[in-house]
Sequence to fold (176 residues):
Amino acid sequence: MVLGRIVPHKRIEIAIDTVADLVADVPGLTLAVIGDGWWSDALAQHIATRGAGAYVDLAGFVDDEAKHQALAASWVMLLPSLKEGWGLAVMEAAAHGVPCVAFRAAGGVQESILDGVTGLLVDTPEEMTNALRSLLVDTELRERLGAAARDRAALFTWEMTAQEFRGVVELVLAAG
Fold:
């Protein structure tokens, strides 16, 4: 699954190529691309060029209920972004026990994904393909990373955020 805005810097083409490289080896493999954006037509063209229409679903925008149903049904989330903030989509997937594979160089995902613990960070498209293959064929690895991701996501509550914010305010006030 890919979840997010459909814009060039998200590099969703890499996720499509990754799945295209594995589909012959992993029967039944599909990729749901959930989100909307001005790059959707270009992405649809890439899907057609790769002949990937049979296993890539460019779903577009979905409501929260459908998004969470899709997350709950997913095995792995791919985040091939060139740049990314903290990674809200990563945590949404994690809350459903879905590990994520993302590019280390994207930035903020290094804070939301603990490499080898809650997901996998990679450096090249080939590494993304290999990481996805590993998670698809190794049920124990996928379930272990997914469980750790779920546990980590549970730490990020509004209560925890308020406590952290309060601590920062207290430090600023104490510094006078």
